[in-house]
Specification:
Rossmann fold; 6 helices; four-stranded antiparallel beta sheet; alpha/beta; 2 domains; 10 strands
């Protein structure tokens, strides 16, 4: 049971929640998402929210596409828009072949792609992910990493739990630990907090600035920056933020010379 929780989520932020099994992480996420209500106290200012539960009830009597369209309608999307976005996200996760498959016939990995798609397709201001990467193959996990980074870059808040301590390493704006029935801010104690070198693979982008243009502040992924010439800059970010960083540079008319993936030095 959680007690005395006082937590404020900032806009446009990535928030990691940690804790031992059974500590109350899922309870906290369900409260944040509005699935559960607190027995005391109150939650205020919750924006439009999408939620990926720890366990997906895949036995619902409908096909994948019917389920996604229904979820989109619940979130206020028109039927044609919901159908279009559902197909788009199924394709991104390599699950478009299952559109007409009953939910009950899906494997664990395929059903996880569906439940993640229903959360991503609605463009929520608050996205809550409870072990959303579990069951996904590496390519789908990378896709989810990038989708999370893009959402935060575009202004959403994402709260997540994942058993992998390296998940989105170096990208979180805040980290909270659930223990002894409470929630503790451990952001300042986190060795891989945002802006620090991440422990996982990164992408190095070499870019050339237009005449008279300086590097904008607040680029996605808090890149490490190194100037190698009068107009040339090398920026390094976690892999998840590479797409968002490239979009930010291209929007400022920067010329991209090279994009190279780097593994962490041993």
């Amino acid at each position: 049971m959680l007690r005395g929780v006082d937590l404020t989520l900032q806009e446009k932020s990535l928030v990691r929640v940690e804790g031992a099994n059974g500590s109350g992480k899922s309870t906290l996420l369900r409260l944040i998402a509005g699935i559960d209500v607190p027995s005391a106290g109150r939650i205020t200012g919750r924006p439009r929210c999408a939620y990926v539960p720890e366990r997906f009830p895949a036995a619902m009597p409908m096909t994948v596409l019917d389920y996604l369209v229904r979820m989109g309608r619940i979130h206020g999307l028109g039927r044609s828009t919901a159908r279009e976005r559902a197909r788009e996200w199924l394709e991104r996760f390599g699950a478009d072949a299952y559109a007409r498959t009953p939910l009950s016939e899906l494997s664990k990995g395929s059903s996880q792609k569906v439940v993640v798609s229903q959360a991503l397709m609605v463009g929520a201001e608050l996205l809550v992910l409870d072990e959303a990467w579990t069951g996904l193959e590496p390519a789908a996990r990378t896709m989810l990493d990038r989708a999370v980074a893009a959402l935060v870059t575009d202004g959403s808040t994402v709260v997540f739990v994942d058993h992998d301590p390296g998940r989105l390493a170096g990208a979180a704006d805040a980290t909270y630990r659930v223990e002894d029935g409470g929630v503790r801010d451990v952001t300042g104690q986190e060795p891989q907090r945002r802006g620090a070198p991440a422990s996982g693979p990164r992408v190095r982008v070499e870019a050339e600035a237009p005449p008279g243009v300086v590097l904008p502040e607040g680029l996605p992924g808090s890149p490490q920056v190194r100037h190698t010439g009068e107009d040339t800059t090398v920026l390094t970010v976690p892999v998840a933020y590479s797409d968002a960083l490239l979009r930010g540079l291209l929007a400022g008319y920067w010329h991209i010379r090279s994009v190279v993936r780097e593994e962490q030095p041993r």
